[in-house]
Write a structure and sequence with these properties.
about 425 residues; alpha+beta; BirA Bifunctional Protein, domain 2; 2 domains; eight-stranded mixed beta sheet; three-stranded antiparallel beta sheet; about 20% strand; RNA-binding
RNA sequence: GGAGGCGUGGCAGAGCGGUUGAAUGCACUGGUCUUGAAAACCAGCAAGGGUGAAAGCCCUUCAGAGGUUCGAAUCCUCUCGCCUCCGCCA
């Protein structure tokens, strides 16, 4: 959420910035609603002040046994006027807040300007272009040949997009998760969590999934809970409504979780295999940091995630997203993509974003600085990493001509195997 | 699912429907004292909004949302959370 005060003071500047993300955005309605609301607030405050004062006087008189009931009728009228204004105020604040919740975050100045993913910038290509001197199979064929995933059974149980990992496939999935968690814990100062997978609406508003992307989320009708699309949601909301001490920052949190995505609007795209599924596992990294350090933290976050790819011996590149491709809540974002030689395409396996104070404002996550001043902190998150596409790229990259898969050395202790055949 | 209890400032814990944003204690911050520290003593110590150059002034907030009343932390209703007992269950 953008601070209404900023919008008020520099509407055109902010609007121009937002249009780098989405050309159709206008702040006119918001500014008008804000002016309107403040007028109402002032009127209401004045009346409340009057009411408070007069009620106090009555109290004093009464304590002296000199109560004068003749003013009651007048005050009753005032009281009713205030009630009406309060109703109006409530309604109008809610409307303004709802409008603000629909406004995306402002892209950072360093973000390249562009309308779509075509204008994303390849920041670094770290692929070694490992030679495969035979026609590589797709991960779907490999998984079927080695009996790692039963897509049909998954579809029977839950529908398309719910892969059923089996045997060494299930083992590989588990190994990947454990390897990644251990790597982050061993090398960086993270606290591990295991979170709820269902969250309240409020939590999904904090991180920016709601209200705008309601259609993308699974939710339970009776209890009005939402299945998390990423552990970012519960992790970030750990500090909902908290005021942290500056000495507690930065805080680094990590969790593996199942992630649930309806993928509404992408029917027919990547329907086969592991490239786009409704449920997958992801190790998520979340940072709560001081506002002055958040861009340094973003660089280190992205770097950290790439180390996993190095250790898994995968070809990857780092993409700097252009303004038009930035997600709703992000001010700046790097995507990591791995090369899948069977599919012959780059697969997004991680998104590392700085949200600045966008989420902290929504979730009321603040810190007290050295001077005792309270302010919103900055939040970041990054996948470290999402398994299904890693799983796919790993099979396709490390396949051998005889159909077997060589397990990267870093993963072997977790598999107890050096190859799958 | 049934029965009951509870929810007040960073924490603990008062609070008769009327200057209660809220006693008191602890913690914290500043000061006095001390060679230094501790102790003692003094002072300060919520967040949000509006207005203002600032000091200040005004408003809101005692889990959340409504209601009663001239006036609500205090009374009523609902919701949420926590605890205890019973039932069910991994």
């Amino acid at each position: 959420m953008i601070d209404i005060k900023n919008i008020r003071e520099q509407q055109s500047l902010i609007q121009d910035s937002l249009r780098k993300k989405d050309k159709s955005i206008s702040l006119d309605n918001i500014v008008e609603a804000d002016i309107n609301l403040r007028e109402l607030t002032k009127k209401l405050n004045d009346l409340q002040s009057e009411q408070n004062q007069q009620s106090k006087e009555i109290g004093i008189l009464k304590s002296q046994g000199k109560s004068d009931e003749s003013v009651f009728a007048k005050l009753k009228k005032l009281s009713n006027t205030i009630k009406d204004l309060e109703d109006e105020h409530r309604t109008k604040s809610k409307i303004l807040k709802d409008m603000l919740l629909e406004i995306p975050n402002i892209p950072h100045d360093s973000v390249p300007i562009g309308a779509s993913e075509k204008e994303n910038v390849i920041k670094k290509d770290c692929s070694k272009k490992k030679k495969i001197n035979f026609k590589p199979k797709s991960h779907i064929d490999i998984a079927q040949d080695l009996d790692l995933i039963d897509f049909e059974a998954g579809a029977k149980i839950s529908g398309a997009g719910f892969p059923l990992y089996k045997g060494n496939g299930a083992l590989l999935e588990r190994a990947l998760i454990n390897f990644m968690i251990d790597f982050h814990l061993k090398n960086y100062n993270y606290t591990e969590f295991f979170t709820p997978f269902l969250v309240k609406e409020k939590s999904a508003i904090t991180t920016g999934q709601l209200p705008k992307f309601y259609e993308d989320m699974y939710h339970t009708e009776k209890d009005k809970l939402y299945l998390i699309p990423t552990a970012e949601v519960p992790l970030t909301n750990i500090h909902q409504d908290d005021i942290l001490e500056v000495s507690d920052l930065p805080k680094y949190y990590l969790a593996n979780s199942a992630c649930f995505r309806r993928e509404a609007g992408s029917y027919g795209k990547d329907t086969k295999g592991l490239l786009r599924v409704h449920q997958f596992n992801k190790v998520e990294l979340v940072k709560f940091v001081h506002p002055t350090s958040s861009y340094d933290e973003l660089e280190s976050l992205a770097k950290q995630a790439t180390k996993i790819l190095d250790l898994l011996e995968l070809d990857y590149r780092i993409i700097e997203l252009c303004s038009g491709d930035l997600s709703f809540a992000a001010a700046k974002c790097y995507d990591l993509e791995v090369w899948a030689p069977g599919e012959e395409q780059w697969l997004e396996v991680s998104s590392c974003s700085n949200f600045e104070d966008f989420q902290s404002r929504r979730g009321n996550i603040r810190f007290r600085d050295d001077n005792g001043k309270v302010d919103y902190l900055h939040t970041l998150n990054g996948s470290g990493l999402a398994t299904p596409r890693i799983f796919a790229a790993l099979l396709e990259t490390h396949q051998n001509k005889d159909g077997s898969i060589t397990i990267p050395i870093a993963l072997q202790p977790y598999m107890g195997l050096s190859e799958i055949k």
